[in-house]
Amino acid sequence: MKRIAIIGAGLSGLVLSYKLAPHAQITVFEKSRGSGGRLSTRRVEDFQFNHGAPDLTPRTAHFKSFLEGLERKGIIQDWKPKLAPMLDETSEATSALSWPEKHLRGTPGMSAIGRHLAGTQNVKFKIEVAPLQYQDDSWKLYSTEDKELGQFDIVISTAPAPQTINLFPPDFLHTDKLHTVQYSSQFVLMVCYDGMLETGWQVKQTNNSPMIWVNCDLNQDSLSPKSCVVAHASPEWSAEHFDIERQTVKKELNRTLERLLPSDLPAVHYLGLHRWRYSQCTRNIDENCFFDQESGLGCCGDFFKNTGAEGAFESAEALAQQVESFIKS
Fold first, then answer.
1. Are the C-beta atoms of 105 and 76 separated by less than 8 Å?
2. Model confidence over 219-266: pLDDT tens digits?
3. Nearest to 104 by CA among 146, 63, 141
4. Rounded to whole angstroms, what are the CA distances from 304 to 39, 175, 182, 226, 301?
5. What count of other Cβ atoms lies within 10 Å of the Cβ of residue 43?
6. 33 CB-side CA count, 13 A
């Protein structure tokens, strides 16, 4: 069987691995300690924050079918939070926000999706792959710590485009197109309060503010009531503050958040910050994926024809079809 290395255990990498597993010997390498990519949950003590994608909204038939399967297994569930009116920092609109489409959230957190998909697959965690080397008619992979990882006939990157460029040789067939991809970055503030927040809402979207999304959840699993808030900074604000010292960013975002919450806030139990360097693709490639049969290199992800989690899923499906056809030819 062909030996295939997949770099990245986000949604694209895990879907690709699942689709190709019957046809090849698959190894997935993930540099972090968990799977799912931006479908992520941070756990602290006995509470948690969904600090990546807050939910999934299926629109295409294939993605809907995929999520329906996860829903039947109890991995995700319909999410219908109470929504606040659209507002800015000084005034609220009169009409309430509504979601016309179905929103789905992992249970108990978004990371449940990646954990489920990775459960039966050969995923190697905490391994960052170094730039690829071609030796003895195959790709010989090493970690950035110079550990030998094995030899492979095909290597697929599901990492963001800039990271894929660094991994692949300069003469990769589609390098020029990868250089056209652009991303926005994003800071995410995570706050746990000792007690219940009387907000009257679970989700608030804002205008004219450093923050564009605030989600407040009561932590049911804690021994004492705790309110967990996840606040997403705007891409513009995040870009302006990207290289500023983290403690300064955290304090500034927390001051903004306090202006959006009730004045009688409980004591802060935990205050955390995450910076997504490649949060959302703002300039994508109008193709489904790349696969060069001659070199055995390919890539897929949310920077192709459609962005977001659904785009990552569709790109992985398209690449799986191409690689499977190549293997069988």
1. yes
2. 766 567 889 999 999 999 999 999 999 999 999 999 999 999 988 899
3. 63
4. 18, 14, 11, 40, 6
5. 12
6. 3
Tokens for 173, please give them: 């067939």
What are the backbone angles phi and psi of residue 132, rounded to the nearest 5°?
Answer: -70, 150
Helix/strand/coil for 11: helix
Q: What is the pLDDT of residues 264-279, one digit of tens each?
A: 899 999 999 999 999 9
Each residue's pLDDT tens digit, 35-44 = 999 999 999 9
What would the two tokens of residue 144 be?
Answer: 């950035």
SS3 135: strand
Supply the DSSP string of 198-232, one letter for each residue.
Answer: --S-SEEEBSSSSEEEEEEEEETTSSS-EEEEEEE
Please give the structure tokens belonging to residue 235.
């891409």
Residue 265 is given by DSSP the state: P
The β-bridge partners of 148 are 142
Give the pLDDT confidence score for residue 206 in this predicted structure: 87
Contact 92, 78 (CB under 8 A): no
CB neighbours of residue 73 within 10 Å: 9
In Å, how far are 188, 211, 233, 289, 313 from 274, measured between CA atoms? 5, 14, 11, 29, 24
Residues 6+ apart with CB under 8 A from 303: 160, 161, 181, 183, 281, 284, 285
Tally Cβ neighbours within 10 Å of residue 138: 16
CA-atom Rg of the chain in angstroms: 21
